Amino acid sequence: MAAAQSAGSRTVLLTGAAGGVGTLMRDLLPPYGYALRLLDMRPIPGEPDAVTADLGDIDTLREAVRGTDAVLHLAGISLESGFEQILRSNIEGTYHLYEAARLEGVRRVVFASSNHAVGMTPWPGPGEPRVPIDTPHRPDTFYGLSKCFGEDLAQFYWDKHGIETVSVRIGSCFPKPTSVRMLSVWLSPQDGARLFHAALSTPDVGHTVVHGSSANTRSVWDLSSAKALGYTPLDDSEPFAAELIAAEGELDTTRPEQARLGGHFVTDPPIWPH
Questions:
Q1: Least crowded by CB within 10 Å, which of 8, 39, 102, 232?
Q2: What is the 3-state secondary structure (H, E, C) of 191-260?
Q3: Could you state, in order of their start, the residue ranges of all structural domains in the chain?
Q4: Catalytic residue among 34, 98, 143, 157
Q5: At residue 161, does pLDDT exceed 60?
Q6: Greatest CA span in the chain, whole angstroms?
Q7: pLDDT reported for residue 1
């Protein structure tokens, strides 16, 4: 595949634009040349032209997708929830998004997957290789399961309908890491924008899965497939390490909640409907 190109004046539908990562990308992506069309199930203050719609509203989704060059799909439930809620939002909602793209002739999606798609994978020990991108799906939650579905759905729509997708297994995209575990999986907002730009603009990606993190000294992920898109991470969580380690201690993989990639998602009990 070729390296990332300048966006020019491309229009991108940003779903989940009122969420944590979406809010960050609203400011960080336009300097790369993107005109963002915003969509969220909640009204977005200060954005009167934003589309307010649920992912179950296929007609409105089609209208929102129409005329865009690509979709950055960040919408959905971002934590563990009951299966019925995950089913409606993350599984059926992502299907509706891809159907809208297919019907409107949009040929590029960037899908916000998650490290929780492989969350039951053991945390690599000292001296062991970084986790490869072809690690088999091992979801740690219904949420993680929905991200496995999204990646497989992206592969299906590429093979069946020619819609290209970059599935980004996002670690933790916050202004700064907030835990010792996050020192390894942190994706700075600025690196997030660099990665999404590469995913949106690199030609001939088919369906490509990449790990989404910064150039962290303590990284456990192989970033080679992301770098093949032209992604060059510039940030490192290490400046935050001393304070977090003083508060929490070093990562201890003998503890169940730190023994696998998914962190506390691995050990948290499932959320059943009441």
A1: 8
A2: HHHHHHHHHHHCCCCCEEEEEECCCCCCCCECCHHHHCCCCCCCCCCHHHHHHHHHHHCCCCCCCHHHCE
A3: 11-267
A4: 143
A5: yes
A6: 53
A7: 73
For 11-267, CATH gives: 3.40.50.720
- Going by pLDDT thresholds of 50, 70 and 90, the confidence category of residue 269 is confident
Would you say 97 and 244 are in contact if contact means Cβ atoms under 8 Å apart? no
Is 34 known to be catalytic?
no
Average model confidence (pLDDT) across the chain: 95
